[in-house]
Each structure stands twice: as structure tokens, then as C-alpha cells.
Design goal:
CATH topology of the largest domain in chain B: Rossmann fold
Largest sheet of chain A: none
Strand content of chain A: under 5%
Structural class of chain A: mainly alpha
CATH topology of chain A: Fumarate Reductase Cytochrome B subunit
Number of domains of chain A: 1
Largest interface: A-B, 43 and 43 residues
CATH superfamily of the largest domain in chain B: NADH:ubiquinone oxidoreductase-like, 20kDa subunit
Radius of gyration of chain B: 26 Å
Order of helices and strands of chain A: HHHHHHHHH
CATH class of the largest domain in chain B: Alpha Beta
Order of helices and strands of chain B: HHHEHHEHEEEEHEHEEHHHHHH
CATH superfamily of chain A: Transmembrane di-heme cytochromes, Chain C
Distance between the termini of chain B: 106 Å
Structural class of chain B: alpha/beta
Radius of gyration of chain A: 20 Å
CATH class of chain A: Mainly Alpha
Number of domains of chain B: 3
Helix content of chain A: over 70%
Bound molecules: protoporphyrin IX containing FE, iron/sulfur cluster
Strand order of the largest sheet of chain B: 2-1-3-7-9
Helix content of chain B: 40-55%
Largest sheet of chain B: 5 strands, parallel
Oligomer: heterodimer
Number of strands of chain A: 0
CATH architecture of chain A: Up-down Bundle
Number of helices of chain B: 14
Number of strands of chain B: 9
Number of helices of chain A: 9
Chain lengths: 217, 351
């Protein structure tokens, strides 16, 4: 078994199993925890929890006007790499085929050239995010190992993917194996680190919205 | 057959002009991407080459490799070179049979001790004492070891000899292995392919004849001259790959328009061979050009890489079972964690 066989076989399979295990474990543990009974009386004329939740999710897509200037970079850059990652992961034919092979689902792809360009922008954007984190005293102060490690496992597939298509540094099959291994690391880390926000971000914002609406905030 | 001192003399005898020969040699040289002056000296050296003793052993194989080389592009020249070198022993091609030819093999070995080349096609079965393939009452293993003992170099022709090939495909019922799994103390040149491109075989042999040394090899023992290029990098369908235009089946519109075959299982991106450049039958075509994805036949274990029609970017293995099991385990673990937390909370509330 060569490195590519290992990556496409045991490594990615075990990683997907860990991902699914971890995600369901955390989600079930959270969702079945049960909410404390809220004895307050909901304000009159406020939307129900569902709509309030949706409204909060929508509202938080843009920064609060008070912080619009201060947060301009984080806001803009954040959108760039999130959308970039989504385009690269879900717009590239080999990636879609990977998902199709697992789930049977398929959709049209973007030209590969577009993917390479978006991939490069995404990488730059992620690097900018790290620079911001290190140079901003407050952000650096509140950063933990989790933040840095999460950054590494996020940018690794992008860099290795670009390296593979560009044949930078090694033979294609070796680079591809490294690409897949870097994805395996990402999948394994996802449920246990800050990347889990991918699953919780809308849940927690919606929950906050419902909670605040009840109070009429 | 009459003996000729050199290859040049033999070619002249067959009415092949020096000019035609130099042209052919530079064709081979250009395929191997040799520098022009090296190419020229290959022609000169090749003309001076003395008869090279080659012993060709056929083990677990389908004879496709021999078929390929005997149907190569410029048959007269290549046949002549092939004849020129191969006459000592080749079970499929020689007319003689029986004890006599085993004797001929041993005689050739003794007469050219340390100088002869062993060419092997086919893999070697090791299971059950090697009974799955024998000739003259000897196992393939015994013949290989005996014949290679005094060889100058070994050429593994075809994927079976080079990497075990189809006989080694799961579940490998005969315990097939490659030549390199057995012979450790001789230079081994692997010319894999199922079958290999004829020019890769004759080019390598010509190089050996001309320069008396092993050409530069890659990490899998393949001459870089023929196996240095990635099919995907040299594929004329590559622009379709870059544009995201993929055939989805073998007779859809995309297939008719000549789009990329990645989705129907092409293994070009991880395969190294000269198919996309040298092509087959004198540069007429190659599998991808005729509409079928690359099978990756010049790579080890190409038969067991997850399926010829499965796109390269798919996981290989019992994914569904593994992930399904993990999903159940994850859900149970989550519910248990929630139950423990609730229990603790309610006992705290009571307490
Ligand atoms: C610009 C960035 C990227 C490029 C250029 C890229 C390129 C590639 C290429 C060429 C393959 C082909 C696989 C093959 O032919 O077998 C591949 C596979 C794959 N990539 Fe990416 N990739 C990038 C980013 C990512 C990211 C960010 C992820 C996920 C987080 C990802 C996940 C995958 C997966 C799951 C596969 C399938 C692995 C397999 O073959 O089994 N890629 N990628
Ligand atoms: S047909 Fe195969 S080798 Fe050619 S571009 Fe498509 S994937 Fe690459």
C-alpha cells in the first residue's frame, strides 16, 4: 500500500467515521440536555421563537452599525474565506465526485481555473486573518491553542490542494496523498475544536435570538 | 541464422541503409528525450553493438507483452534488433522445444557469464511451492534465481514482472510476486504496462546495447525517459478538465465531444507512462484518445485501486459500514452524555 492508497483508504475512512461520531455525539449531548424552564412571561407583540431566531441569524450576517468601522476588516475578510472555502469545497468537480461517491448527490461544477483562483484568494485571506490575530493585541491575548491549530488544519487542505494541481515540490500522487491526509486531519479535528461552529453557529445565534425576543430586546 | 559481428552489419545485410538506421535511432533518442549529441552517439554505438545475449523468461503472463513488441511500429528495424538480441531463449518465439532448449539456456549462461541480460515477462507464483507455473519441471522461482545468478542486468517486461500485475490482484491465489521481490543483487529495469509500449521496450534495449549501462530510473525502477511523464499532464483532453467539461457516460454528448474522462474513471492523473506522448501503433492513438479512461496499467496494483470506472476522487474501503457504525455510536454517546447531565442537574436541584 502506498501513501495515496493509505490516504484514500484507511485514513479518510477513519477520519469520516470520527467526524460523524464526534458531530453526533456533541449535537445529541447538546440538544437532549433539555432547557431550563423559563418562568418569565414573554413580552407581548414579539415574534415567536422560530422567527426571532431567524431574524437574529440574518441580523448577525452584518456587523452592528456601532462596530461597522472597527470590524470592517474582520467582517469582510471573514466573508471572503468562508465563501471561498465553500466554492472550493463544493464547486470543484473532483470534490463533487467525492461527495457523489458517498451520498449519490451531484451538482454542476465550476471550471477548475476558477477554483484555483478562488483557492489562492482563500489562502491569502486566511493568512490575512492570522496576521490580524497576531498583530492585534486584544485578539492575540484571547487566542488559544485551539485558534491556531484550527487555522492550521483549515489552511492545510487549501495549500496542499493548490500544491497538488500545481505539482509544487513533489510528485502529483504524493501531493494528492498529503492533500487527502490534511483533509483527514481537518475532519478529525472538526467536532472537537472551534471548527464545530460550522454546526453550531446558526443554532446558537437562533437560540440567542429566541431568548432575547422573549424579553423584548 | 548466420552470425553477424555487429548490428550495423546485420542491418546492412537486410538492406537497411545507414541513413534509415540513424533516423530510427534518433527517433528512439527523441522519444527518450536524449540530448541531440547523445542521440547521435546512440546511433553510432548501436551500429557497433555486438550481439547481446538475452534470455527471455515467461512466467505467469498472457503473452501480451511479446505480442506488443513483435507488433511494434517500424517492424523491420525493431524485429531485426529484437532478433539480433533475443535468440538465446524465448519460450514463445523459439522453434525448438524440450530438453534441448533448457540446455541452450544453460549454455548461453555459461558462455556469456556476467554479460547476458535476462528479460522476464510474467509474475512468479510462490504459494504451494510455486506449483502454479512451471516449465521443464522447474518452478518459475527456481528458473529465475538460476538464470539471474550470472546476469548483467534484468529487464522486467510488463506490469506482471515489474509489480506482480494481474496474477497478484486480490486475492492473489497463486501468491504471485514481482521479479524485484526476488532478485536483489542485480540492476533491474522495470518496463511496466499491460502491455508496455513497444518503443519503451526497444528504446531501453537499444540504450543498453549502445551504452552498456542502465538508463536513469525513477523510484519504481522505470526508465525516466519513458515513464517520466504524467498522463494527465500530457493529455490532449486536459483543457476540458480545466474547463470543468466532463463526459458522464461513454456515449453522452460530452463523450462525443471528446471531453475529459475523469468522471468515468480515468486514472491519468496518477499514472506515468508515454501513452499520451509516444502513443501506440506509431503514434496513431492511445486509450484516452479512443474514448476510454486510462486504467493506470503501468502502476503497481492497478487492478485493485477501487475500480476502473470509479472516479479517482472517491474513498476506497468499507466507508458506508464504518460511517454508519460511527453515526450510531456517536448518537448513543451523545444521548448518554445528555442523560448523565440531566441526572446530575436534577439531583443537584433536589439536593
Ligand atoms: C484550492 C484549494 C483546493 C484544490 C486546488 C484542491 C484540489 C483537489 C484535487 C485536484 C483533488 C483530486 C483528487 C483526485 O483526483 O483523486 C482533490 C480531492 C479532494 N479534496 Fe481538494 N482541493 C482544494 C481544497 C480542498 C479543501 C479546502 C477541502 C476540504 C476541506 C478539500 C477536500 C478534498 C477531498 C475530500 C478530496 C477527495 C479525496 C479523494 O480523492 O479521496 N479540498 N482536491
Ligand atoms: S482524460 Fe484523464 S488524463 Fe486526460 S485530462 Fe481527463 S483525467 Fe486527465
Amino acid at each position: 500500500m502506498d501513501l495515496l492508497d493509505f490516504a484514500r483508504g484507511p485514513a479518510i475512512n477513519v477520519a469520516m467515521a470520527v467526524l460523524v461520531f464526534g458531530v453526533l455525539w456533541r449535537l445529541f449531548a447538546l440538544l437532549f440536555l433539555g432547557k431550563p424552564v423559563d418562568r418569565t412571561i414573554p413580552r407581548l407583540g414579539t415574534p415567536g421563537p422560530f422567527w426571532a431566531g431567524l431574524r437574529e441569524i440574518g441580523r448577525r450576517m452584518l456587523p452592528h452599525p456601532t462596530f461597522a468601522t472597527a470590524e470592517r476588516f474582520a467582517f469582510f475578510n471573514g466573508w471572503v474565506f468562508h465563501v471561498g472555502l465553500a466554492i472550493v469545497v463544493f464547486g470543484f468537480r473532483p470534490h463533487i465526485l467525492f461527495i457523489k461517491n458517498l451520498t449519490g448527490l451531484s451538482w454542476p461544477a465550476l471550471p477548475s481555473g476558477v477554483i484555483y483562483a478562488v483557492g489562492a484568494i482563500t489562502a491569502l485571506s486566511l493568512i490575512a486573518a492570522l496576521v490580524k490575530r497576531i498583530t492585534s493585541p486584544v485578539q492575540r491575548f484571547i487566542s488559544t491553542f485551539d485558534d491556531y491549530f484550527t487555522w492550521v488544519v483549515t489552511i492545510a487542505p487549501v495549500l496542499t490542494g493548490l500544491a497538488a494541481v500545481g505539482h509544487v515540490g513533489a510528485r502529483y500522487e504524493t501531493l494528492l496523498a498529503i492533500h487527502i491526509l490534511s483533509i483527514a486531519v481537518l475532519l478529525i479535528w472538526l467536532p472537537f475544536g472551534k471548527l464545530f461552529h460550522a454546526f453550531l453557529v446558526f443554532l446558537s445565534r437562533g437560540q440567542t435570538g429566541a431568548f432575547l425576543a422573549r424579553r423584548g430586546v | 541464422m548466420a552470425e553477424f559481428a555487429t548490428l550495423g552489419e546485420r542491418l546492412a545485410e537486410h538492406g537497411i541503409s545507414r541513413r534509415a538506421f540513424v533516423k530510427y535511432a534518433s527517433y528512439l533518442g527523441s522519444l527518450m528525450a536524449l540530448a541531440p549529441e547523445v542521440s547521435r552517439s546512440m546511433a553510432a554505438e548501436l551500429a557497433k553493438a555486438r550481439r547481446q545475449s538475452v534470455i527471455w523468461l515467461s512466467f505467469q503472463e498472457c503473452t501480451g507483452c511479446t505480442e506488443s513488441i513483435t507488433r511494434s511500429y517500424s517492424p523491420t528495424l525493431e524485429d531485426l534488433i529484437f532478433d539480433f538480441i533475443s535468440l538465446d531463449y524465448h519460450e514463445t518465439l523459439m522453434a525448438a522445444s524440450g530438453e534441448g532448449i533448457e540446455h541452450a539456456r544453460k549454455e548461453a549462461m555459461a558462455a556469456n557469464k556476467g554479460k547476458y541480460i535476462v528479460a522476464v515477462d510474467g509474475s512468479i507464483p510462490l504459494k504451494d511451492g510455486g506449483i502454479y507455473s512451471t516449465s521443464a519441471g522447474q518452478s518459475n522461482l527456481a528458473i529465475l534465481e538460476e538464470t539471474c545468478k550470472d546476469a548483467f542486468a534484468v529487464i522486467s517486461i510488463g506490469t506482471c514482472a515489474a509489480f506482480g500485475g494481474i496474477p497478484k490482484a486480490k486475492p492473489n491465489p497463486t501468491g504471485a510476486v514481482s521479479v524485484a521481490d526476488i532478485i536483489k543483487d542485480k540492476p533491474i529495469i522495470n518496463i511496466p504496462g499491460c502491455p508496455p509500449i513497444p518503443e519503451a521496450m526497444t528504446g531501453t534495449i537499444a540504450y543498453l546495447l549502445a551504452f552498456g549501462k542502465v538508463p536513469e530510473l525513477d523510484h519504481l525502477g522505470r526508465p525516466k525517459a519513458f515513464f517520466g511523464d504524467n498522463i494527465h499532464d500530457r493529455c490532449y483532453r486536459r483543457p476540458f478538465y480545466e474547463r470543468g467539461q466532463f463526459a458522464k457516460s461513454f456515449d453522452d454528448e460530452g463523450a462525443r465531444a471528446g471531453w475529459c474522462l475523469y468522471e468515468v474513471g480515468c486514472k491519468g492523473p496518477v499514472t506515468y507512462n508515454a501513452c499520451a506522448t509516444t502513443k501506440w501503433n506509431g503514434g496513431v492513438s492511445f486509450p484516452i484518445q479512443s474514448g476510454h479512461g486510462c486504467l493506470g496499467c503501468s502502476e503497481p496494483d492497478f487492478w485493485d485501486k477501487g475500480g476502473f470506472y470509479v472516479p479517482l476522487s472517491g474513498s476506497v474501503g468499507p466507508t458506508a459500514k464504518l460511517v454508519g457504525g460511527a453515526a450510531i455510536a456517536g448518537a448513543v454517546a451523545g444521548l448518554a452524555a445528555a442523560a448523565v447531565a440531566r441526572h446530575r442537574k436534577s439531583s443537584l436541584n433536589k439536593g
